[in-house]
Design brief:
This protein is an alpha/beta fold. The chain is built from 14 helices and 12 strands. 44% of the residues lie in helices and 15% in strands.
Length: 325
């Protein structure tokens, strides 16, 4: 099974096409039969690829020679959160410690052309999250991404999701950072080795960042920033999105779309915090229920719940409910 999925990735079979094939076959082993492939309702070019495929273990041997590991959508190590996507990647290639995929994770993303303030904030936030045991996820880009990875590596763990294959370091300015992440964290990609950084790869990369993360924090996003794709995807799959209190076009846009405002360093009165924890002592409650019981506006309450969750004092449950940790 593994060799089939790896070969499909080598052939460049898209995520959507794979899941369409998967839903129409009893076993992927049937793809080795040319007559069966001819009967499938696929684009002629896709059929040609499948009929010319090498179904041996040669692709897996190639990965081994390159020092690249992989997990498939049928593996226990595959991140379950990725199934929140309509068509998740069916193979993830990696370098580093793949166990990091199973840890609690938060994405920290933003503009490549970030301000000094934005990069410093990304660094400090990532360091803070890592100290609390979170795996910090980002995209290895210049600016906010690089600052987030560096902050996380100071005290903990980080995962870089690539818009190229895992051995193709992009941007080249981050080669040293890339090696540090391989040595102390994890680099992943859905693209077979030899795949260069193409423009249409990055939205796919951003979808993975959003889907494997419990929440997404946008530090500073310009207009049309890839961080906006990540944030919108997070909203689609039900992951909370927070934006930092920086005056950037993308940040303002996300606030209008319902993202929470994360004001670094601003704490509410301890009595409010104690009151939230007290009402959660008995049973899980929704945000609306907590707001009514404590006479707190929902927007302020959501920010405080986010802070409490990041501190490990409350847990967010499916359906928007919260319980005391």
């Amino acid at each position: 099974m593994d060799s089939i999925l790896v070969e499909l990735a080598r052939l460049g079979i898209s995520w959507e096409t794979f899941w369409r094939i998967r839903s129409s076959v009893e076993s992927l082993e049937q793809l080795k039969d040319p007559s069966f492939v001819k009967s499938l309702r696929l684009h002629p070019s896709t059929k040609r690829k499948l009929m010319e495929a090498d179904w041996s273990h040669r692709s897996i041997e190639m990965l081994g020679n390159l020092g690249v590991g992989f997990v498939t959508c049928f593996s226990e190590l595959y991140p379950e959160k990725l199934f929140r996507l309509k068509a998740p990647p069916y193979v993830l290639f990696y370098r580093g410690d793949v166990e990091f995929l199973s840890g609690r994770s938060v994405a920290i993303v933003g503009s490549r052309k970030a301000s000094v303030e934005g990069k410093e904030l990304a660094y400090s936030l990532a360091k803070d999250f890592a100290q609390r045991g979170y795996v910090v996820v980002s995209g290895l880009a210049l600016g906010i991404d690089a600052a987030a990875h560096r902050g996380a590596l100071e005290v903990g763990r980080t995962v870089a999701v690539m818009g190229s294959s895992v051995e193709w370091v992009y941007p080249p300015e981050n080669r040293g950072l890339y090696q540090n992440i391989v040595d102390e964290g994890l680099v992943i990609s859905p693209f077979f080795p030899g795949t260069p950084p193409r423009r249409f790869n990055f939205p796919l990369r951003n979808r993975i960042i959003a889907a494997i993360s419990e929440r997404v924090v946008v530090v500073e996003a310009g207009e049309g920033s890839g961080a906006l794709i990540t944030a919108r995807c997070a909203m689609e799959v039900g992951a909370p999105v927070a934006v930092c209190d920086l005056d950037a076009p993308g940040n303002r846009e996300l606030l209008l779309l319902g993202a929470e405002l994360l004001e670094e360093g601003k704490k509410e009165d301890d009595s409010v915090e104690d009151a939230i924890l007290k009402v959660l002592d008995r049973s899980p409650l929704s945000v609306d229920e907590i707001a009514v019981m404590l006479n707190i506006d929902v927007a302020s309450l959501q920010v405080r719940l986010l802070e409490l969750e990041l501190e490990g004092r409350v847990r967010r449950l499916p359906g928007g409910f919260y319980k005391k940790a």
